[in-house]
Structure formats: C-alpha cells, structure tokens
Known about the structure:
It is a single chain. By secondary structure, this protein is of the alpha/beta class. It is built from eleven helices and 18 strands. It has helices at about 5-25, 50-60, 105-110, 120-125, 145-155, 175-185, 210-215, 255-260, 295-300, 345-350, 360-385, and strands at about 30-35, 35-40, 65, 80-85, 90-95, 110-115, 120, 135-140, 160-165, 185-195, 225-230, 235-240, 245-255, 265-270, 275-280, 285-290, 310-315, 320-325. It has a ten-stranded mixed sheet with strand order 5-4-2-6-9-18-17-16-13-14, sandwiched between helices. It has a four-stranded antiparallel sheet with strand order 12-11-10-15, with helices on both faces. The chain has a two-stranded parallel sheet with strand order 1-3. It starts with a helix and ends with a helix. About 35% of the residues are buried.
Amino acid sequence: MKKPLLITLIVLVLILIMPLINFIRWSVQDKMPLDVLILDKTVPTLDRLKHKSLVWILNNDRFVKKQNKSSYSYKKDYYGFSPTRPLRERGMSKNEYHLTEMIDLPQKVDALYFADTYGVFFNDWYAGVNKSRRSRKIYGGLNNTDYLLINEMKNRNKLIILEYNSFDFPTPAFESYRTQEKLGITFSGWTGKYFEKLDSTSKDFPVWMTAMYRKANNKPWTFKKAGVVILDEKNIIVLEEGTQLKSAMPMILTDTANCRKFGIPASVAFNNWFDIINPLQNNVISKFHLETTAAGDTLLSGKDLTASFPAVIQEPVNQRTYYFSGDFASNKISFWTSRIKGCEKLKGLFYSEKPNDTRRFFWLYYRPLINHIFTDYYVSMNSKK
C-alpha cells in the first residue's frame, strides 16, 4: 500500500474512532446526583430551544437524577408547556407543580432553574399566522406558585437561577414586584435586543416595533443597518450602527477576578434578548456593554439609561441565587454531542476566533459559567455530609 494512502486511511480511522473513545470517556466519568427543577413555559416547537443547551451541559458534566442515576432529558425533564407529536395538530400538555406541593417539592429538589417564563402566544403556536405581530397569550408568565417555589427554595439556601423576562410581560405586576424583592433587585422596565438588520422588510422582523416607534416619536422608522432596539411599555430607543453605535453587537464583559473564578472570557458577543436591572446589593459578575457614540449616550441618558448594565448577578451572602439578564439558555446545539467528552476543544467545528461570532457565547461563556455554578454547589452540598 502506498504511503499517502496509508496515512489517509489512518487519519480516517482516527476521525471515526475518536468520538467512540470520547463517548467511553464520558460514560466512565463519575456521576453527580443532583435533582434540578427546570421551568420553561416558552416551548412552541419540539426543539425545546429555551432549555435544551442547559440540559446539554448537565448531561455533559454527568449531573444525573438522584432516584435512578439517569441523565436528564430535554424532552421530558422540565415543567411548563409541552407540545406533542405531530406538531401540525397543535396538541399540547402542561406539566405543572401545584400549591399543595410547596412544602415537599422544595425540600426534595436541590436546584431551581427558570429558563423562560415568557410563554407561548397565538402567533407562535398556530401555523400560517404572521409571527411579526403581537398576539394574545396562550400560556405563560411567572405566577404565584412560581414565586412560592422561589421563596421556599431560597429559605432552604438552595441553588436558584432565573433568566431574562422573569419580571416583564406577561408576568402580573404583583408577582413581578415580590420576585424582584426576594432576589434583591429592581427591574427598570427596559428590555432590548440586537438585530442584524433593522430593515422592517427583513424576514421575521417584529414590525410592531415600527408602529410603536412612530407612535412614541412622531416620525417614521427609517433604520436599515445593524443595531440594538431597547424598549419599555411605552417608549422605544433605536441605536443604529454608524450613528448611535460604533459597533452594533452587544458584548458581555467580565473583570479579571470573575474570569478566573468562573472560567469565562473577558469579552464575548451576545445577540439574544436582554433586560436592564438595578442589582442593588448583589454581586455583579458580568456586564453588558453597548459601544455607543456620543449621540447614542445622549439618547440613552435621556431615558436614565447607560451603555453598561448587569448581565449576571449573584446574591452576596450565601451566593446561591443568580439572575441572568439575558436569554442565556437559548442556544442551538446538537444534543448528541452532550455524550462526547472534550468536544468543546474542537473549536474549529463549533465556533471561530472572530470576536463577533455569537456561537462563542455558549462554548466560552454559558457552558463554563453553568459548569462552575453547579459543580461548586454540588461540592459544597456534599462536603457537609
């Protein structure tokens, strides 16, 4: 056999056998039994995108359910809205906990993760409906039982993580207020998102924003380039690249001490929805930063906003309650790779070195952040036994 052909065959064999080897390495890792309650009310498709990547991390790190030591399923192991097959028939069920469980459930569960409470709306659920317009709620919003679960878990000093939109519509004002109070933060009412194109004719662009802008500012929507839209119940701010922004992509920045502690980078791009909170006495682990121009700063300051605001905060005393001010768990990822140890090292396949590559967020930021939080909590729980 010719040498070049032999080398090619060896390389091909290695490529084929490496996933098997790394699957075996994953399989023999020590399992970490931890009962995690995941809540996701925003599940309009079978992909279950809003919590899938969280379960990927739990599985890849070998966190398992206590009762049978089995891995978590992103299809089954969550509370909230659950579509059924075939999706075209629009069948669904609601897996919910109830008021009568608010003593036993918080005692049994080790950790709580509210991945998304926004919910499912008419336009998201029914095929053929214009998804760019606002519509009525089918299911969603943080409710009284959700608050009681948070309260009981916090009283027991257990791990609690909540994400973006836990306080805004469609959560009722009273539930929003007392959840903020329990977490020791205040929600400003402002939310925002990056758009690759602000052109209202772009596919899936939320055209209700243009109507809101015309009503709030008495002038037409003329934006076309990349930018960030920030809005509250009645007001809307548009920051366009080249005018109000030097660079349109929001970045998450972390200081050196927290980079070392959580194993996360100093800077990473983020293109999902975010909200703006006041952390009060909480520790700020990371911040969002918008690279504004003087015109952008003026626009923000007119609404008492700044270009930097918290992205991740941590309760300062017991350090077991976190709030992520962004849609962090919403990441597109192939779930089968969760059973491959060390796959994050194949960065050429999953993300590039370009700073604005938003795929970097999951691999370089979200994954190590969740890994550190859950591993540290697991170790501290078991060190007391």
